[in-house]
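I hope you will forgive my troubling you with a question about protein structure. The matter concerns a single protein, recorded as an amino acid sequence and a row of backbone structure tokens. Please examine both parts with care and let me know of anything in them that strikes you as inconsistent. Thank you for your consideration; the sequence and its tokens are set out here:
***
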Amino acid sequence: MTVPYQGVPHGWFAVATSSELRRGCVLERRYFGREWVLWRSVSGRVAMQDAYCPHLGAHLGDGRVCGEHLQCPFHHFEYATDGRCAATPSGGAPPSIRLVGLPIRETNGIILAHWHERGEAPAWEPPDLDEEEFTGFHFSSRTFRGHPQEVSENSADCGHFGPTHGYGNACITDGPRIEGHVLYSSYTMDRSLDFIGLPRAKAELSFDAQVHGLGLSRVRARVSRVGIEADLLILPTPIDASTVQLRFGARVRRSRVPLLTMLMKAAFVRGYHSDLLRDIPIWTRKRFVERPPLTAAEAPIAMYRRYARQFYCDASAGQRRAAVGE
């Protein structure tokens, strides 16, 4: 798959779930065409840094967490979460070397890192996902040949819901509209209630989607007929320019009956997972059509693509202004 831009897009991307990274744990990750170590100090602080020690090049995935520092396995140089060399075994003044790291945010069970090809600081923050009235997210993951832009484009492509997923009467009810780094869109459709054990019943589903860059989409889904409200996350992270790891999360609004909440969550996770598994084979084998012959009803796809331009370093200043509607 190719896209008409060089490199991977910048923005906030999921790099782990909180449950994967215990205190004192070191994980190896490959994202954005590079190798990284992701680690959590004993106090709970998280860092994602270059995988190789700047002293003599040892791989820090073989290191260990010592209190608030990551210790290199080769000469036991220690690095703080801000990247500075904080200690050496000789006890002398640490050298003025640093580990390159990425800005990190952690919210409701997901760890996000900010990637920018030029190392620029974040221009915006990811949404706060902490809401007490909802359960925690259940996450699943798939890795495949693809690109984050293709994954997020589904939010603007109402026409695929019928042929790909079997939904009926899919239509956009509001938007899309662009406000800076966020694209908003609302749509409705009819769906079988097979995911809650009622294959012959149908209900209208409504969705309010927020696309926060190309690495985080959030969809609030409602099934009014059965009183279910769910929060869905779509989190595509580029491993390199042609491979993506897609995490998807689902949670539901709590009911007064804990068992009912648990059953609703399990049902929605099952249905959501089934729907995404229909998209992945298509994303894997499709190619990017730069100037598609869109129908009038598919105008939101063109708007989405203008929006996406702002997240690439090779976009001109004019393209970035046009993308955000300035």
In short: The helical segments are 148-153, 161-165, 258-285, 299-308, 317-323. The longest strand covers residues 198-212. The chain has a mean pLDDT of 88. Residues 258-285 form the longest helix (28 residues).
